# Entry
Amino acid sequence: MKKVLIATAVAAFLSTGLMAQTHTIFVHGKSDKSHNGTSTTDVNNYWGSAKNVVGGSKYFVGYDGRTDPRTYGSARAQTNLTTVLTQRCKGSQTCKIVCHSAGCYATEFWLANLGGTAANKGFNITKVTALASASGGSELASALNGITFGFGGNAMDKSLRVGTARPAYNHNNTAGVSIFQVPGSKGMFGASLILPGEDDYAVAYHSSCAYNQAGGLDKCQASLTQKEGIWPFRSNKTYKMFSGHFRAPSVPVAGLYKNHSEIKNDGWR
# Structure
């Protein structure tokens, strides 16, 4: 009888293991194209060969890259994100999310507004790998808005203004899911004149490292204190990562010497 029970338990364990599936969910950022889709197809090839650095099954949250990533509707980020995560991250299925740029804005917005922890809502999300996250906005979008008196740019551009992105949701609420930041420091002369601190030519470290305040930062760590202001009135100012956010363990404090596009290849982290 004991042998029968053991055999039954082993069979059940093996059956459960075979049924369980683990997926990687890709969420893209700003684009001048529509990548609308919720399947295994990378519509309009946003990720290119970067998707191949991750093994196993992959699903793509695609939407119109010109729209506000916080919105619902046809070809919108929040609707398609909800569809994919509901279909692929519940029951015996487990997911890791890989987001890039404004795709991290969309992902964090979704988590913050879930209304509880992901686990309590039935979602099995192991972590988020945030590549060059624009969840804190970009000074480039703010500058575009300023020089055009609010008339320039599409809905995505307007959502990425620093003054819009930072108060858009509670960045400390990640629904219990750990978000691992992967920042890039390979800037470009023109953009780097506008972006404070280290940048990847599209977003600065205050955004890609999930700091709780915008500022000129050159390191990615849990807390950073630096002197700021004009001499002799300089004083210490402390920046901290939002709760639930961490630098990816394989990334050095100085970040990666990659630009905004190149960092898409780091979804394996």
